[in-house]
Amino acid sequence: MIVLDRVTKQYPNRIMAVNNTSLRIEQGEFVYIIGPSGSGKSTLMKLLNREERISKGHIQVGKYQLEKIKDKEVPYLRRYVGVVFQDFKLLPNLTVYENVAFALEVTGQSNKEIKSRVNKVLEMVGLSSKTNQYPRSLSGGEQQRVAIARAIVNRPAVLIADEPTGNLDPDTAREIFQILEMINQSGTTVIMGTHNNQLVDEFRHRVIRLEEGRVISDTYKGDYEA
Ligand code: ADP
Predict the structure, then answer these.
(1) Largest CA distance in the chain
(2) CA-to-CA distance for 13 and 80, rounded, in angstroms?
(3) DSSP-derived pairing of the beta strands 158-162 and 81-84
(4) What distance in angstroms lies between residue 199's CA and the mean position of ligand 1's atoms?
(5) What is the DSSP letter of 224?
(6) pTM above the 0.85 mark?
(7) 223 falls in which pLDDT band (50, 70, 90)?
(8) Per-residue pLDDT tens for 7-44?
(9) Which residues pair with 84 in a beta bridge?
(10) Which residues contact 24 (CB under 8 A, 6 or more apart)?
């Protein structure tokens, strides 16, 4: 469960990116965050894994109270909340397998466990045949699938995807929506910032619309224009 209670994020330049916003997201929900550029979508998502700190208010993400969380607990929060970005952020000198395994190696698992989990998530995203390739030899859609595999290999309760299809053509974007749908069906909460109105209308879920840092509508099975 995720709860935001009167959350404000003001950047040092005084811009109020999130303005006194309250929200509740249950475990297992699929939520789109939509709104014009600059409306606070990325900031809202960055607050949930403590990439940014809140200025005022209260955020609860699972058992973590983010206004109180200690620095040494942040790595555990980041295992609870996986993240996918528009520009993939893969490590160019590591293979597909290594990019995903890297996220697990820091958790001190055995090599056998790492191997089995990495292979399983790569199979889930349809990349079993590309494990030894480097990111530069993959298409954008394939790179995003590696990034998704990396984000879910720690079995996070929550997956945040900030504009994950922003750099992809429509067919590839649909594949990414399908993979996120499948991850959600396995019980993971998915929170996705997107401008892809067509796919938001096709894959119906809760739609939270932001404007100037505030929630201006919140509809279940909503569409992009609602
Ligand atoms: P969106 O994801 O909807 O485009 P953002 O959360 O990126 O919106 O931005 C919300 C507002 O906060 C914008 O006015 C943006 O310029 C500002 N902003 C975002 N990140 C920073 C930052 N690191 N420092 C200062 N201002 C920022």
Answers:
(1) 49
(2) 30
(3) parallel
(4) 24
(5) T
(6) yes
(7) confident
(8) 999 999 999 999 999 999 999 999 999 999 999 999 99
(9) 161
(10) 1, 2, 3, 4
* C-alpha to C-alpha distance for 86 and 166, rounded to whole angstroms: 6
Q: Which residues line ligand 1 (CB under 6 A)?
A: 11, 13, 15, 17, 35, 37-43
Distance 40 CA to ligand 1 centre (A): 6
Q: Cα dihedral sign for 15, 20, 26, 31?
A: negative
Chain centre distance of CA 19: 21
What is the helix (H) or strand (E) element at residue 191, kind and residue range?
strand 189-193
Q: Which amino acid is at 148?
A: I
CA dihedral 154, 114, 106, 25 (to 10 degrees): 0
Nearest to 29 by CA among 198, 192, 202, 164: 192
- In whole angstroms, give the CA distance from residue 99 to residue 131: 10
Q: Is 6 helix (H, G, I), strand (E, B) or coil?
A: strand
Angle of CA points 33, 188, 78, to nearest 5°: 80
Query: Ligand 1, closest atom to CA 39?
Result: 3
Looking up tokens 């000198």 gives 93
Q: Please state whether beta strands 205-211 and 189-193 pair in parallel, antiparallel, or not at all (unpaired).
A: unpaired
Contact 176, 165 (CB under 8 A): yes
97 C-alpha to center of ligand 1: Å?
33
Q: Which of 32, 43, 44, 85 to mutate to test the pocket of ligand 1 (most atoms within 8 A of CB)?
A: 43
- Cα–Cα distances (Å) from 65 to 3, 6, 23, 93, 189, in that order, read 10, 14, 15, 36, 18
- State pLDDT tens for residues 102-116: 988 777 888 999 999
